[in-house]
Design goal:
The chain has 178 residues and is an alpha+beta fold. The protein has one domain: Lipocalin, CATH 2.40.128.110. 16% of the residues lie in helices and 49% in strands. Strands 1-2-3-5-6-7-8-9 form an eight-stranded antiparallel β-barrel. β7 (121-134) and β8 form a beta hairpin. The protein is elongated and about 50 Å long. The model has no long low-confidence stretch (mean pLDDT 89).
């Protein structure tokens, strides 16, 4: 319900709907590892996103309880102790890009300037992404890093030597025209 209302609000903020593409099953994968540290990885396929090509805007909403871990105890700790999913159920990113439509698909990487709202903290970010069009489907890809400390996610001292502050994030979204 919250995802639907988010997309409804975002879509209704635009005047022209002719170039709107959406998805409700984008994938986000994250990995936090380093030498001698614990590997923490999860995947979420419940991500909603919208691109408005007329206004050069893109938005994502990530339900944090949608992340699946290989180890159930990690999933429990992630939701209860780190991202506090009951208090902060979603992460969002709303951004803008400068390229025109032709350049968007011909460039390997574009810069999206926006704001990430995660764990109650809003942070301006620049994220690199690439897009390709295949028929009526538009695929978007992105890889970037998040720092737990930037979003006030505290790593307890007892495990601070096992958990990396840097989280590698990969996004893959297949958008369809609205």
């Amino acid at each position: 319900m919250k995802t639907t209302s988010f997309l409804f609000f975002f879509l209704n903020s635009f005047i022209c709907f002719s170039q709107i593409y959406i998805t409700r099953d984008a994938e986000i994968y994250f990995l936090s590892d380093a030498d001698a540290l614990e590997i923490i990885e999860a995947k979420n396929s419940q991500v909603s996103a919208v691109i408005d090509f007329n206004n050069k805007k893109i938005a994502f909403q990530v339900p944090l309880r949608g992340f699946n871990f290989k180890i159930s105890l990690m999933e429990e700790h992630f939701n209860e102790n780190y991202v506090e999913s009951d208090k902060f159920p979603n992460a969002t990113f709303i951004g803008f890009y400068q390229e025109n439509l032709d350049d968007l698909f011909s460039k390997n990487n574009i810069e999206i300037n926006g704001e990430m709202d995660f764990h109650g903290i809003k942070k301006k970010m620049k994220i690199r992404a690439s897009f390709k069009k295949s028929g009526e489907i538009i695929e978007g890809f992105s890889k970037f890093n998040l720092l737990c400390s930037d979003f006030n996610i505290k790593i307890p001292k007892i495990v601070s030597n096992k958990i990396n502050n840097t989280v590698n994030v990969k996004v893959n979204a297949k958008f369809k025209k609205k």
